[in-house]
């Protein structure tokens, strides 16, 4: 398992060789619905990382709008065992919630970064649902580092995971540089289908997963943040309800 220094070096090398630019990440997501994103984009030594320019805007009062997640006794409560000295001692964002399992409850990121979602209040069953995930610095200090190009999104109902982001990774990284109260926005999407434990053993979900029945569902997001100095952090936020018909 690479260390934080190894991962940080890959991100910096990519940033030095690539001119930051804006891209249509929504188009990328539509072309690769079942993406596999997270710190694996940084650990694939043969993969060239592209740096994504993300819009930064000032946001205030976000902390009061988001419910605080319940706290785990420790991150290792849901992480797979890893060797001593490993940089990440918990599940990465794309493995946080697995098919058929309970929706994970995670302690807030020590950096003060929090995710919130903007998806439609209702959507039709049978097609991808697109929206935005906003990461806000609710802390008192500037935060800088890198994240994956898009967050991992989870569809759940009554606390049980029905679907989560999966499949081929998008080999890009997003630069984070947020003053207190500032935010950055990612494009995101999810599929209104239901997966099983067996589906998680495959490289990507099949195209014929059963659609979920009409009703109210919850969506949530998570993303791995690698600060310029310090250990990798898992950034999450509250859930958002969507009606699927």
What topology does this entry show?
Blueprint: H1 4-17, H2 25-31, H3 40-43, E1 50-52, E2 56-58, H4 62-65, E3 113-118, E4 122-123, E5 129-137, E6 143-148, E7 152-157, E8 160-164, E9 172-178, E10 182-190, E11 215-227, E12 233-235, E13 240-244
Protein architecture, described:
The chain has helices at 4-17, 25-31, 40-43, 62-65; strands at residues 50-52, 56-58, 113-118, 122-123, 129-137, 143-148, 152-157, 160-164, 172-178, 182-190, 215-227, 233-235, 240-244. The chain has 245 residues and is mainly β. It has one domain (4-244): Immunoglobulin-like (Sandwich), CATH 2.60.40. The strands form 2 sheets. Strands 1, 4, 6, 7, 8, 9, 11, 12 and 13 form a 9-stranded mixed β-sheet that branches. Strands 2-10-5-3 form a 4-stranded antiparallel β-sheet. It is globular. Mean pLDDT is 75; it is low at 17-88.
| Tally of alpha and pi helices | 4
The portion of residues forming beta strands comes to 25-35%
CATH top level is: Mainly Beta
What is the CATH-assigned architecture?
Sandwich
Q: Which stretches are poorly predicted, pLDDT < 50 over at least 5 residues?
A: 17-88
Instruction: Spell out the CATH superfamily.
Output: Intracellular proteinase inhibitor BsuPI
Task: Jot down its keywords.
245 residues, mainly beta, Immunoglobulin-like, nine-stranded mixed sheet, four-stranded antiparallel sheet, 4 helices, 31% strand, globular
Short note summarizing the structure:
The protein has 245 residues and is mainly beta. The protein is built from 4 helices and 13 strands. The strands form 2 sheets. Strands 1, 4, 6, 7, 8, 9, 11, 12 and 13 form a 9-stranded mixed beta sheet that branches.
